[in-house]
HTH tetR-type domain-containing protein
Amino acid sequence: MPRWESDAQGRLERAALELFETQGFERTSVAQIARTAGLTERSFYRYFPDKREVLFADNELEAHLVAQVEAADPTLSPIEALLTALGTADEVFHPRDFLLRRIKVIAANPALAERDLIKLADIADALARALERRGVEPGKARFIIDVAIAISRRATSRWLAEPDTALSELVAQAAAELCETVTPPAPTVR
Amino acid sequence: MPRWESDAQGRLERAALELFETQGFERTSVAQIARTAGLTERSFYRYFPDKREVLFADNELEAHLVAQVEAADPTLSPIEALLTALGTADEVFHPRDFLLRRIKVIAANPALAERDLIKLADIADALARALERRGVEPGKARFIIDVAIAISRRATSRWLAEPDTALSELVAQAAAELCETVTPPAPTVR
């Protein structure tokens, strides 16, 4: 991904991730991140309000998913539109290695873990509004989003572990697994 | 807990909720909350570390749900154990009127909304560990929890609006709705 490799924002993200890994989030300063990226502190603040935000810059993901839901074939059911959109998230994801390292850094730091929850909630809210614009009643839209996020989290964690399967395929698998999970097995006929 | 102690906590919670409603979370001080409840600031800090925590004191809910999952019949599937537990949450809920007012206050204040997300994530983590103790593989446990939370949120928001239906009944309805939502309608045979 040459464009991502070369841009200042990407350099800051990679520098921050590396510093958070090696010396911890708390002990890393904005000045250090900028220096490691070969940039000034001022450049840092052009991209991020503070160091907690460095790993959460991808508004691209939210915008991408909302655009996908909006562009979805009107004959698709709300959940189909949503799952199709979520199955294309890998188009805007960072490289897999970056994502795996990022997950570990976030899990190790409560401030980052909180930011991650808030970010996910923001994406969920944006997607709920996109479903409402397709005519889905708000309570139902929220339910469908919660279900789709459960499916998407399941699929994404597998995708990170199984590089050879397409994300869209893993989303379809998790959706199928969902129904099996919820429906109790049919009683044995005697 | 002696009755007077839990009553003091309840008085502080009700006083805080009322002050947050009438003058906003930001403009309310711990001193005011304590005074309105007829208690000292020192008493306040016996129950809560700070004013953001006043509306999130119900560790009772997490403990109740975990205990229910642990006590569930071993022949129940993981999702059945979880949904049965979630269907009993009303046993430890605050009165409905308090919950409805609390939801509005939380939605109106980003600091409280963040705290709410973290609280829910903590409950989810505790329930995932409870499922793992029942022998469920961690990735699967997380998936089942996410799905059960989607169902529970749908059921609880209906329960708040429809006082006459039991929460356990609404949980069962939402679980049934889930499968219909995910499974596309069978194609019409021509």
Remarks:
- DSSP finds ten helices and no strands in chain A.
